[in-house]
Amino acid sequence: MxxxxxxxxxxxxxxxxxxxxxxxxxxxxxxxxxxxxxxxxYVVAGVNDYADRNRIGGTGAAIDSVVxxxxxxxxxxxxxxxxxxxxxxxxxxxxxxxxxxxxxxxDYAEMMAELxxxxxxxxxxxxxxxxxxxxxxxxxxxxxxxxxxxxDEDEPEVLYGAHQHAREHLTVEMALYLVxxxxxxxxxxxxxxxxxxxxxxxxxxxxNPDGGEYDIVGGQYHNWRKNRQPAGDGYRGVDLNRNWxxxxxxxxxxxxxxxxxxxxxxRAFSAPETQRLRDFVLSRRVGGVQQIRAAIDFHTxxxxxxxxxGYTERPSAPGLGQDQQRTFATLGGILAKSNGYTPxxxxxxxxxxxxxxxxxxxxxxxxAFTFEMYPGSPDKGGFYPPASVIAEQTARNRxxxxxxxxxxDCAYRVIGKQQQYCPR
Length: 424
Ligand code: 0X9
Ligand code: CA
Ligand code: CA
Ligand code: ZN
Prior knowledge:
The protein is of the alpha+beta class. The chain folds into two domains: 18-95, Alpha-Beta Plaits, CATH 3.30.70; 108-421, Aminopeptidase. Helix content is 32%, strand content 21%. The protein contains 13 helices and 17 strands. Strand 15 (304-307), helix 9 (322-339) and strand 16 form a beta-alpha-beta unit. Helix 4 (108-121) packs parallel to helix 5 (170-184) and helix 9 (322-339) runs antiparallel to helix 12 (398-407).
């Protein structure tokens, strides 16, 4: 058992799967509501003899192995502090990435590496840009895919966004799937080739890199939804999909309480992450005309295609007249037919205020949909379906993603009103 544990941790270190980070005493503070009693793995340096080992064991920590004067221990934060007080250097051994069984998912570093590889392999049609930095300073990648990719051409623009919610990791895989689809099928599949040549495709694969990394820290899931910004009262996290600036906090579709899962933040766009995407979207106004015509914001789970508004149950509301409502519902129905999801107005799920699609539609006129991906029910893994479903459940949205890009020239075509609304 011990030999196995040693062999395993040696293998993990050799494979670069374990990194050592200093213990941050603030993390272990019992006054921090995020603090979890769960024990974690640490490395203790300067463990040279039997007396050292017994002193460490005497704190209650479990010694898993001792190699070259370093002990690998499993300890609660309190035990780790006791070892520190004995004068030893204690280093938190943080397992990186997804739990081994879900290694098929991309963590932040793996996602960035895949995007870099794709950009390098397809330099004429793909660029990896940046939206700026998240609260904790992670780069938020922005992908552009189009012919003549370095030029801003007069082509309908379409936006695919993913991962506003930390634990919805399947959405990052969805974005990576779209990157591969549009780049690898270019010049092979005539439909993809036509789209890449006639559209400017923007992909934001990771709206919440801090939350996403936090959700898998220690090689375990933490059921985390929000970003990682301090929220007050010792709590962390703003619900990014309640932080957008249209009807912010209007309608009990979000919470003013810092500890809440749907905390909307102190004001609209208080989160750096929503600011970054807002500023990018606003930068796509050319001569006062928003270039982005259509968008999908990927979430999990429930297998739904949702359209605005989320803040009200009424099908029509300011900015959303009958023709617009019919266009959303008809296009939503077409998209849902292609992937087998259920189409409905966003508020039929429950009222949400300050969501991205309400803002995109009401302030920018973007035909914006929320997709709630696989699974349809919690018994199939909820927010954490196994990695074995990634290929099928991302490819399931191939057709809907392509259809949306095709309709980006004039969504009103779905109700036959292109002459009226999209005269050329
Ligand atoms: O509550 C949300 O933000 C989304 N559901 S999730 O389980 N992924 O958190 C639904 C949002 C749908 N409503 C709007 N987009 N308005
Ligand atoms: Ca182009
Ligand atoms: Ca353009
Ligand atoms: Zn979500």
